[in-house]
Input
Amino acid sequence: MKIRCQEHYDKVVEYAGSIGDTTFQKCIERLKQWENNSNGRYEIELYWDFAPYSFSSMARNCSTTIRLG
Output
C-alpha cells in the first residue's frame, strides 16, 4: 500500500486513536487484504480527500486503474 499523503494519514490515525474509533483501522485492513488477495496484480494507493478525515483510494496495476472510494 502506498500512502500518497503521509502527513494527512498520520493525523487521521492520531485523531481516530484519540476518540477510540477503530473504523479507520478496519478500513485500512480491508484495503490491505484486498491488495493481498490480488496476488500482486494490484497495489492500493491512498490520496488526500476533500473531507477532513477521509481518503480517496485507487487500485493500480500496469494496465488498469480502479477507483475504490
Q: What stands out?
A: The chain has one domain: 2-67. The beta strands are 2-3, 43-48, 55-60, 65-67. Residues 2-67 form one domain. Residues 23-37 form the longest helix (15 residues).
